[in-house]
Predict the structure.
Amino acid sequence: MPRHKTPLKILQARMRERSKRWREANPERNKRACWNAVLKKKYGITAAEYEQLLDDQEGGCAICHSPDPKAKCFGNDTRLHVDHDHATGTVRGLLCHPCNTSLGAMGDSPARLRRAATYLEAHYAEA
């Protein structure tokens, strides 16, 4: 008697349903797994390495040293942004939203940032 094989589409649907039930039964583990997967794919670091960076920075932004209440991602969690060199992919540190976008707006150029600081200092002294 020939064996009847279950079609691939049916097997895939069963796997999707099983995965969905697991995610619903384990929301915290799923959230951690998703966060770890994003960090690994985008920046090449693990959640543990992110936490180590955060500890090294004493829980705040690497530039202004304050935590970022505006950086919302993955639900209601507040996290600092992973700052990285776009040319090499090297992670430099964790930044709050304003500091991260400021660096990006200045093209990650140290010379441009120094000129901006000089400009601000000159005009701040006048005020």
